[in-house]
Amino acid sequence: MKHRKIFIFGAGSGLGEGLLLEFQQRNHIDPKDSSVAVVDVYGFSRSGKGSISNWQSGTNHRFDLTLEDEIESFRKSWETQCSEWKQNPGWEHTQIIVYFAQGDGLFSPLEELNLLEIQKHFSLNLFSSMRVLQIMSDGLKQMSSSSVVFLSSTAAKFGFPNSTAYCASKHAVSGLAKSLREEWKLWGVKVINAYLGAIATPIWDDRPEFSKSDMVTLEDASRFLAELSDLPDSVYLDEVYITPKKGVL
Ligand SMILES: NC(=O)c1ccc[n+]([C@@H]2O[C@H](COP(=O)([O-])OP(=O)(O)OC[C@H]3O[C@@H](n4cnc5c(N)ncnc54)[C@H](OP(=O)(O)O)[C@@H]3O)[C@@H](O)[C@H]2O)c1
What we know:
The protein has a seven-stranded parallel beta sheet with strand order 3-2-1-4-5-6-7, sandwiched between helices. The protein is built from five helices and seven strands. The N and C termini lie far apart (43 Å). The chain has helices at 14-26, 68-85, 115-142, 164-183, 218-227, and strands spanning 3-9, 38-45, 59-62, 95-100, 145-153, 190-196, 239-242. The protein has a single domain, classed as Rossmann fold (3-Layer(aba) Sandwich). The protein is 36% helix and 18% strand. It is an alpha/beta fold. The longest helix has 28 residues, at 115-142. Bound molecules: NADP nicotinamide-adenine-dinucleotide phosphate. Residues 10-17, 45-47, 63-66, 101-104, 124, 151, 153, 196, 198-199, 201-203 line the site of NADP nicotinamide-adenine-dinucleotide phosphate.
């Protein structure tokens, strides 16, 4: 039986929460089917209920990805958990999948953005993934199968008005994914850049000019993104681009 450990950063709402629920629902194991994967799924975000120092599968754990002391707590927990997991024979055959679903929107004309909000935006949307990957790097490289999925955006392909910061951070995430893929090729780590069109999540709540009825539903997007965890071994999917029926809104 395959064992999978799924890590979802930004599991408090929207796509991250949708993924957490999707994996929880999928985790009904038929004891007669030896091919079914056992999935442990761990969420992380500010509103998590679980403690960052005591991980429970199926739980969202409290972790502000922009705070250095909380990143340090995550490092300690990751190291402790890894040394426990490594006691299990065949640990290196566990499949690890990391989803980066944390992020916020910053939508204003360039002249109205102040430095602090630009820094906060980049800290969450770009730097936090880099910090977490530095911590998880050894573990991900040791496994016979690891994947990293970035929730990128149409805003990493095109520019939009009042979106300089958002488009810049999303283009940067796309650059991070492309480089990481080359850097970790030697260890066979799959790095998937998922360019997402509009999906009906709370990130759109302050933008009434866009109708959620024109968007991909959260359930459909979560189901689709969860499928990326189950690629055949020899398939390396670099990029995927999805939009709602209307295309780019
Ligand atoms: N929805 C779309 O149309 C769309 C399209 C393309 C790309 N995306 C990208 O998908 C990602 C998820 O967005 P979403 O649409 O699901 O929006 P969302 O519902 O606003 O989700 C944002 C997530 O980030 C977490 N988060 C925010 N600040 C955090 C912090 N400091 N530390 C840890 N976690 C934090 C939130 O949880 P807490 O509040 O609990 O911290 C929440 O889980 C974003 O990167 C977004 O750019 C979305």
